[in-house]
Design a protein that fits this description.
mainly alpha
Length: 73
Amino acid sequence: MWNEPYLETCCRSALHRLMLVGPHGRPPGLKDGPCLKRLTGMGLAQPRADGRFEITDAGLARHELEILKKRAA
């Protein structure tokens, strides 16, 4: 049974971009800003001291499960 909150397509894309950008982080003020804030509220992203967003361990796990379609262990 799926018990995770649903991610809209735009938020899945934002999560994927966070994973791709790695340690550089995503700057604030981009079009995916609302999704980055939503992902932060879900614990999948976090803001850094420099204002950029980075993916969390929970975000990496969710990316693997939902975007890469790997099964949960």
